[in-house]
Amino acid sequence: MGASSCLSSSAVALFTGDRHRQKNRNSSSLPSRRRGIRVICCASNDRVKSSRSCTELVAERLPMPMLAEDDTIFASNGMMSFVPFKETNGTKVDSTRGIGIAGFLEGKQLLVTGATGFLAKVLVEKILRIAPDVGKIYVLIKADDKEAAVKRLEFEMINTELFRCLREIHGKDYHEFMSSKLVPVIGNIREANVGIDTELADEISKEVDVIINSAAITAFDERYDVALDTNTIGPFRLMSFARRCQKLKLFLHVSTAYVNGQRQGRILEKPFGMGDTIKRETSPEFSAKAAPILDIESEIRLAFSSAKTSWDAPLVQKMKDLGLERAKIHGWQDSYVFTKAMGEMVIDCMRGDIPVVTIRPSIVESTYLEPFPGWMEGNRMMDPVVLQYGKGQLTGFLADPNAVLDVVPADMVVSAMVAAMAKHGSRSNPGMHIYQITSSVVNPLAIQDLAKLIFQHFSAFPCMDAKGRPITVSPIKFFDDANEFSAYVSTDAVRRNERVAAAISNEKISRRLKSFCLRSVEQAKYLAKIYQPYTFYGGRFDNTNTQELMVEMSEEERRSFGFDVGSIDWEHYISDVHVPGLRRHVMKGRGRSTEPQQLGAIP
């Protein structure tokens, strides 16, 4: 399906900044599929095995007459998923030979957007370390000129701690190696032709094999027009460029599992159709005619017309409120996941015969193992709460203690990305392929268990106050009412301020402390407000496609590109890896414990 059948000509002009549309690729029919039966057990060490006990378990829980020959039952950690057998061009997948990840990456030319962001940096590092014979990686960077782009590449990627393993591998040749692989490209996904110079765009379109879109606005409360421009219109611009690429084998789009909005229960890995709205699914009181209709063009026009009505200070809040309002009307939590969902719809509508992989990770946090445990950059979703708690500034939070917080380490996400890229990029199989890299079904982490682990960590290794005294923490209190939580944090802040003020005779310092306490209260209320849809979330993300992808990998591939989320030891990851990594890479050692050498397995 071409762009013209997805969007009107005026919308195309709005998206691209001109009225020149790309020539449509010819669509081809999807390959035929048939069903079959396989019984596979996957142990926690990623080794695939078949066993009589596993087969008997399946027979007990799933009547065999329901199955067809060669279908798959995937059993892992007590969970079972039914997976229809898949064919590719009439050939069965041979899991003993694997997907062929290394062979696929050899010599491939990649274009990566959002490459200076957290997840894409981990991806680039992984590819360069595991597949050094990969071709060029074109890195789209916002910059005024080439010199500025090169400086950003060096400062934000090449010279960062994340790449230290590569520095050790290549030694004195490190910079030469990186320069031969990474090509900074001045561009911006919010501009026509993604902001790439015409001549360079023509060159890249003749060379690139895989496009990886990792650019996104991830703030939950961003201005609606800004979020739309990056998360919805941005994919349109990039897919328009992809349709010009002569050798393109795959378009890989990084989304989020939370595009599933307010869906409840077990949520399957299925694509959106253009105009799908969660409200129709989750609100049975709406009839087919009464349900709100999602028209992406109308949403864009509404956002940009509203933004142009005024440029005074209240405009920012007005546009944030508009995004939240529109998201909730259609069944999404906020403008972030709403605009990301619309981005998926646009890509699926435009893809034609381009194979597309959409990666939907949940809450991406620090690395589990590679290139070393605990690396992270910036505050991820749950980290502001963790830091405020550890510093004694937050003793309670608005959350359902029994709810599951779906967390995945960044290195597992990128390993799944590379495996999916190789699988679908090496086969002539156009279509939209969804992979949810998630933990809530196969290895759920309850919020109360997370809170307990964080409490244990900061009790054993407390942060220090300005005078070097350990900050004592108590078990976190949970609230299910926003007003009660607001009253609690206000009262708690007053008590803390009074205790500190009583020990200080300097009035100026006392005023500063009072101001700081007030700011911390407002920050806590703000975090509770924007996180509430996630700390009371009732959905669990199915990851059957992701599990099946792991089954298709060879043992060697699983060792190099493992992403068995079911094998994560949460106590080890939270207490020994993630929180120490947060303190090292985000807090930069401020408030350091008296025993820093025990802060996790971070080399």
TrEMBL record:
What are the recorded GO MF terms, alphabetically?
Answer: alcohol-forming long-chain fatty acyl-CoA reductase activity; alcohol-forming very long-chain fatty acyl-CoA reductase activity
Q: Where is the signal peptide?
A: none
Highest taxon above the source species: Eukaryota
Write the record's keywords in alphabetical order, separated by commas: Lipid biosynthesis, Lipid metabolism, NADP, Oxidoreductase
Q: What Pfam families does the annotation carry?
A: NAD_binding_4 (PF07993), Sterile (PF03015)
List the InterPro entries hit by this protein, alphabetically. FAR, FAR_C, FAR_NAD-bd, NAD(P)-bd_dom_sf
Example GO biological process: suberin biosynthetic process
Q: Which residues form the Thioester reductase (TE) domain?
A: 112-417
Q: Does the keyword Transferase apply?
A: no
Return the protein name.
Answer: Fatty acyl-CoA reductase
Q: What is the lineage of its organism?
A: Eukaryota, Viridiplantae, Streptophyta, Embryophyta, Tracheophyta
